[in-house]
Design brief:
This protein is of the alpha/beta class and 218 residues long. It has a single domain, classed as 3-Layer(aba) Sandwich (Rossmann fold), CATH 3.40.50. It is built from 7 helices and 7 strands. Strands 1, 2, 3, 4, 5, 6 and 7 form a 7-stranded mixed beta sheet that branches. Bound molecules: guanosine-5'-triphosphate and magnesium ion. The site of magnesium ion has 4 residues, from helix 1.
Length: 218
């Protein structure tokens, strides 16, 4: 995570943040589709599994004084059993953990992903990075019977800051979920801004970039 200060066009002080956000979850749950929808307003039915990690950059004019750049790390679902996640998770300040409402097994895997995350990356103050749970493909018929209050309880117990039903296909709740995560990241940032000033920390590692160079956006 990084920040810089400068003067905007009107002479107002303006602050820029660069936040690394992970998007994780089982194979085929819709991580890439969520990012594509969020960053490029596109959706495709065609499934092409992510190999290794892919990147995208979303720039948000947060308010008149704040610019937020989200560096989104789209991590392959099939990497879970690999040993790369520790490298991928480094310096992340937030996460979207995705499951597919049409496949109950992907919900069961959510806790394993959250565990993996918390065991490999922490905020500078030692707490877990904020994570939002996304119940994706909500445009389709659900497999499983969790109601809203059970999901609330699951999030409280599992250490998620919140959850959203999303659809990358129909563009449901993706902006809202990302906004909610960024609000939390900014709140954390305010409590320890001085430890996070090194822009160079977030430069993309050329070795990681090699993993899948076709659809990088940053
Ligand atoms: P890996 O990279 O293999 O881990 O998969 P992923 O999580 O990135 O999944 P991806 O975004 O590639 O989507 C998998 C399939 O689900 C694709 O065929 C998408 O079109 C489809 N899909 C993704 N999101 C949605 C959604 O919200 N609704 C529906 N109906 N299909 C979706
Ligand atoms: Mg993918």
């Amino acid at each position: 995570m990084a920040a810089g200060e400068g003067r905007g066009a009107g002479g107002l002080e303006c602050r820029e943040h660069l936040f690394k956000v992970l998007v994780i979850g089982e194979l085929g749950v819709g991580k890439t589709s969520i990012i594509k929808r969020y960053v490029h307003q596109l959706f495709s039915q065609h499934y092409r599994a992510t190999i290794g990690v892919d990147f995208a950059l979303k720039v948000i004019n947060w308010d008149s004084k704040t610019l937020v750049r989200l560096q989104l790390w789209d991590i392959a679902g099939q990497e879970r059993f690999g040993n790369m996640t520790r490298v991928y998770y480094k310096e992340a300040v937030g996460a979207l953990v995705v499951f597919d409402v049409t496949r109950g097994s992907t919900f069961e895997a959510v806790s394993k992903w959250k565990h993996d995350l918390d065991s490999k990356v922490l905020l500078p103050n030692g707490s877990p990075i904020p994570a939002v749970l996304l119940a994706n493909k909500c445009d389709q018929k659900k497999d499983g019977s969790q109601n809203s209050s059970q999901m609330d309880q699951f999030c409280r117990e599992g250490g998620f800051i919140g959850w959203f039903e999303t659809s990358a296909k129909d563009n449901i709740n993706i902006d809202e979920a990302a906004r909610f995560l960024v609000e939390n990241i900014l709140a954390n940032y305010k409590s320890f801004p001085n430890e996070e000033n090194d822009v160079s920390k977030l430069k993309l590692d050329p070795d990681l970039l090699k993993a899948d160079s076709k659809s990088q956006c940053c």
